[in-house]
Task: inverse folding
């Protein structure tokens, strides 16, 4: 069994009178893809926002590599080694690929009094990264707005890999993508595992989860109602856990 990377323990969150999460515990191991599924209002987004620093839990603990960590904002999560990729890829459409890959973490030229960005370094590293992810024909100066949805998601995932995130959270990464583009993103998620990264994959598309996840965690109405290994279950059984209806 691979070592435990993340352990969210007894996470509880309420919004007014609404119980969004009730003592939910989630584990992710090294080099593992965990599929997080559930119907609307199940608590998926709330749980992941707590892990990514976008929300704070009312109670519960988070451990990373066995050490207790405090994640109060997204910067805390990034410093721990957690990157989150949302369905809109969180990219700036009018900026070039190279700028987007280093957005918020732009390198500065050495001995630059005015702290000018090192564009040569960004373009050089972006070119290597594009070749690595199979986008060899795309120039790093290309604005994001000119890319397809699948290409944008691939670049967002590649950015997380470049900055050596140990856990990559993917929130509906194939939403609104066509079949071919979805396949490309799913293949890229598998590549992240092969390179030693772990992922939490959130989606409404159970078929996509079933293609890539090692383990599937099911939430319903704020409770964790199921945790199964993909190779030990069926698609129908997962759907039953989500709906609460037995076949």
Result:
């Amino acid at each position: 069994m691979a070592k435990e990377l993340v352990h969210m323990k007894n996470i509880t969150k309420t919004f007014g009178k609404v119980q969004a999460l009730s003592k939910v515990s989630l584990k992710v191991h090294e080099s593992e893809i965990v599929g997080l599924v559930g119907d609307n209002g199940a608590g998926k987004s709330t749980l992941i926002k707590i892990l990514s620093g976008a929300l704070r839990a009312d109670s519960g603990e988070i451990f990373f590599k066995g050490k207790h960590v405090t994640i109060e904002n997204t910067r805390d999560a990034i410093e721990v080694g957690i990157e989150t990729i949302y369905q809109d890829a969180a990219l700036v459409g009018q900026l070039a690929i190279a700028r987007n890959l280093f957005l918020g973490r732009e390198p500065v030229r050495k001995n630059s009094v005015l702290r000018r960005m090192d564009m040569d370094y960004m373009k050089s590293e972006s070119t290597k990264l594009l070749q690595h992810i199979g986008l060899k024909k795309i120039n790093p100066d290309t604005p994001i707005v000119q890319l397809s949805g699948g290409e944008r998601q691939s670049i967002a995932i590649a950015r997380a890999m470049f900055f050596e995130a140990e856990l990559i959270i993917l929130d509906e990464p194939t939403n609104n993508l066509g079949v071919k583009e979805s396949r490309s993103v799913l293949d890229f998620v598998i590549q992240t595992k092969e390179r030693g990264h772990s992922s939490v994959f959130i989606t409404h598309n159970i078929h996509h989860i079933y293609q890539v996840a090692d383990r599937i965690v099911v939430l319903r109405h704020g409770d964790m109602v199921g945790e199964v290994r993909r190779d030990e279950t069926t698609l129908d059984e997962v759907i039953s856990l989500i709906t609460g209806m037995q076949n």
